[in-house]
Amino acid sequence: QKEVEQDPGPLSVPEGAIVSLNCTYSNSAFQYFMWYRQYSRKGPELLMYTYSSGNKEDGRFTAQVDKSSKYISLFIRDSQPSDSATYLCAMSASAAGNKLTFGGGTRVLVKP
Amino acid sequence: GAVVSQHPSWVICKSGTSVKIECRSLDFQATTMFWYRQFPKQSLMLMATSNEGSKATYEQGVEKDKFLINHASLTLSTLTVTSAHPEDSSFYICSARADRGGVYNEQFFGPGTRLTVL
């Protein structure tokens, strides 16, 4: 069993819809939770990070962490075709951002 | 923002040859750099962590003698794939971290290098 599980998709939504992404994990030591966006043949770009449980909002993006369920989510409101990419969740046990454990990524396609 | 570059962006080589990939932090000093490997439609797998001026720490299952890492300065780390074979073909991504204290020290990722071994 992988430490971090993520549905590979693809997830296809119409423009303007809400994109809902999630990951589950098994390591209770994880305290920092990140969401990255990766365009084809490019490096990942950090979208959001959250410490411990709770919600965090930044523009059209909302990240949620439920440590009791070992479940994290990312919501993208008013999705745009430019949001089409692969979204990776990542987790770390330390603030130093040492070893990041990534999920497999979910490919998202926003259709105009 | 923090920019990390990689060179080359893609490389094709013959089996048995060695390939060097450079990772540079362009506008900050990176105390620590990381090397990842990503297979098609799969996630990033950490290969090794390198700190400037010291030996790299390799993840379990990663061959130290095959993947040579050098972190000679605070802005440059190199990964050399020695005696490359077709199974080494992959997308190699580096990241760099500036230890600034605070709540979380972000890793900034390079654009990746596509290696194809014939």
Give structural notes:
- The complex is a heterodimer of chains A (112) and B (118).
- Chain A is an all-beta fold and 112 residues long.
- Chain A is built from no helices and eleven strands.
- Chain A has strands at 4-6, 11-14, 19-25, 32-38, 45-51, 54-58, 61-66, 71-76, 85-92, 101-102, 106-111.
- In chain A, β4 (32-38) and β5 form a beta hairpin.
- Helix content of chain A is 0%, strand content 54%.
- The mean pLDDT of chain A is 92.
- Chain B has 118 residues and is mostly beta strands.
- Chain B contains no helices and eleven strands.
- In chain B, the strands form two sheets. In chain B, strands 2, 4, 5, 6, 9, 10 and 11 form a seven-stranded mixed β-sheet that branches. A four-stranded antiparallel β-sheet of chain B has the order 1-3-8-7, with no helix packed on it.
- In chain B, a hairpin with a 5-residue loop joins β5 (44-51) and β6 (57-58).
- Chain B is globular and about 45 Å long.
- Chain B starts with a strand and ends with a strand.
- The A-B interface holds A 6, 8, 32, 36, 41-46, 49, 51, 88, 95-100, 102-105 and B 4, 6, 32, 34, 41-46, 49, 91, 93, 95, 97, 99, 103-112, 114.
Properties at a glance:
heterodimer; A: 112 residues; mainly beta; five-stranded antiparallel beta sheet; globular; B: 118 residues; four-stranded antiparallel beta sheet
What is the secondary structure topology, with strand pairs?
The complex is a heterodimer of chains A (112) and B (118).
Chain A: E1 4-6, E2 11-14, E3 19-25, E4 32-38, E5 45-51, E6 54-58, E7 61-66, E8 71-76, E9 85-92, E10 101-102, E11 106-111
Parallel strand pairs in A: 2-11
Antiparallel strand pairs in A: 1-3, 3-8, 4-5, 4-9, 6-7, 7-8, 9-10, 9-11
Chain B: E1 4-7, E2 10-13, E3 19-25, E4 32-38, E5 44-51, E6 57-58, E7 67-73, E8 76-81, E9 90-97, E10 107-109, E11 113-117
Parallel strand pairs in B: 2-11
Antiparallel strand pairs in B: 1-3, 3-8, 4-5, 4-9, 5-6, 7-8, 9-10, 9-11
